[in-house]
């Protein structure tokens, strides 16, 4: 009998009161297949994630100082069972994101088929939905788009399908780059550059920069985003909580706020350069 592949499983133990925000934060950091197990006033969140333990502790400890993170390994056949319950994500009347293993739906608008391969979600998280909704309603023809923190590549694929002339997708995780390549091919598009931050030309600018990443990372990359934003470009930032809005505004000054959208406690901000 062939050996089954073992998948890295992150186990987060936290208080019941913060379980929901910890689960959301894990999803936004690229985790998927999250399972919740309750033990009195404590909760165990089990998920597939490539994030280092130190990075997860840094993100999650502010919610619960007693929180712990450990690593286990499990059979991928068991972990993949969640796919049986996946369903299409209808972003708006013109866009649906469909898990690649499901049948083609009867949908009148654009359909993007996404496979998770071994990491990330299927476009159903509020932060991704908000970004996809905004991008799907933009006139992207003749524009360049940078997807910073591409994950599955769903936003980069959407930008290319919507007519963007040049699309770059970057991420720190090799699995994200592989997943993005596969999903681009599966949707019949070619992303112009798929790589890491180091692969970017430091002098190259983009008309649209979309960053669907957690707020601490958004704060860190603010100078870098400004460097790669064209004079009339816009920035779409998602993965922000209500309490983090002011810090994001300060970090991205002098960009000005164009739009602010909320969904289930998550915030998406659209910023642009001053016209004066």
Describe this structure in words.
- The strands form three sheets. A seven-stranded mixed β-sheet has the order 10-9-8-11-12-14-13, with helices on both faces. Strands 2-3-1-4 form a four-stranded antiparallel β-sheet.
- The relative contact order is 0.11.
- Helix content is 27%, strand content 34%.
- The longest helix has 13 residues, at 174-186.
- The chain has helices spanning 19-28, 53-60, 76-79, 126-136, 154-161, 174-186, 215-220, 222-227, 245-252; strands spanning 6-15, 32-39, 42-48, 68-75, 89-92, 95-99, 110-114, 144-148, 166-170, 193-195, 206-212, 229-241, 256-263, 266-272.
- It has two domains: 6-82, Alpha-Beta Plaits (2-Layer Sandwich), CATH 3.30.70.120; 127-272, Vaccinia Virus protein VP39 (Rossmann fold).
- It has 276 residues and is α/β, with parallel strands linked by helices.
- The model has no long low-confidence stretch (mean pLDDT 89).
What's the quick description here?
This protein has 276 residues and is an alpha/beta fold. It has nine helices and 14 strands.
Structural descriptors:
single chain; alpha/beta; Alpha-Beta Plaits; Rossmann fold; seven-stranded mixed sheet; four-stranded antiparallel sheet; 9 helices
Distance between the termini: 69 Å
Into which percentage range does the β-strand content fall? 25-35%
Q: Please estimate the helix content.
A: 25-40%
Unreliable sequence segments = none
CATH level-1 class of the largest domain: Alpha Beta
Number of helices: 9
User: How do the SSEs run, as a string of H and E?
Assistant: EHEEHEHEEEHEHEHEEHHEHEE
What's the architecture of the largest domain, going by CATH? Answer: 3-Layer(aba) Sandwich
Structural shape: globular
Strand segment count = 14
């Amino acid at each position: 009998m062939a050996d089954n592949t073992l998948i890295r499983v992150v186990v987060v133990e936290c208080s019941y009161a913060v379980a929901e925000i910890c689960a959301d934060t894990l999803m936004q950091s690229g985790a998927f297949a999250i399972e919740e197990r309750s033990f009195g006033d404590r909760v165990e969140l089990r998920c597939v994630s490539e994030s280092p333990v130190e990075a997860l502790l840094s993100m999650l400890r502010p919610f619960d100082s007693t929180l712990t993170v450990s690593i286990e390994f499990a059979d991928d056949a068991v972990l993949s069972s969640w796919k049986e319950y996946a369903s299409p994500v209808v972003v708006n009347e013109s866009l649906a994101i469909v898990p690649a293993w499901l049948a083609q739906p009867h949908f009148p608008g654009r359909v993007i088929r996404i496979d998770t391969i071994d990491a990330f979600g299927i476009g159903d998280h509020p932060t991704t939905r908000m970004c996809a909704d905004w991008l799907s309603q933009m006139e992207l023809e003749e524009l360049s788009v940078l997807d910073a923190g591409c994950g599955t590549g769903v936003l980069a694929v959407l930008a290319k399908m919507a007519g963007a002339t040049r699309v770059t997708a970057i991420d720190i995780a090799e699995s994200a780059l592989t997943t993005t390549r596969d999903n681009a091919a599966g949707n019949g598009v070619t992303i112009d550059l798929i790589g890491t931050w180091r692969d970017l030309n430091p002098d190259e600018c983009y008309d649209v920069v979309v960053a669907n990443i957690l707020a601490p990372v958004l704060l860190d990359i603010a100078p870098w985003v400004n460097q790669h934003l064209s004079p009339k470009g816009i920035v779409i930032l998602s993965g922000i909580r209500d309490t983090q809005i002011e810090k994001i505004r300060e970090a991205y000054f002098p960009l000005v706020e164009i739009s602010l959208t909320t969904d289930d406690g998550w915030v998406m901000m659209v910023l642009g350069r001053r016209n004066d």
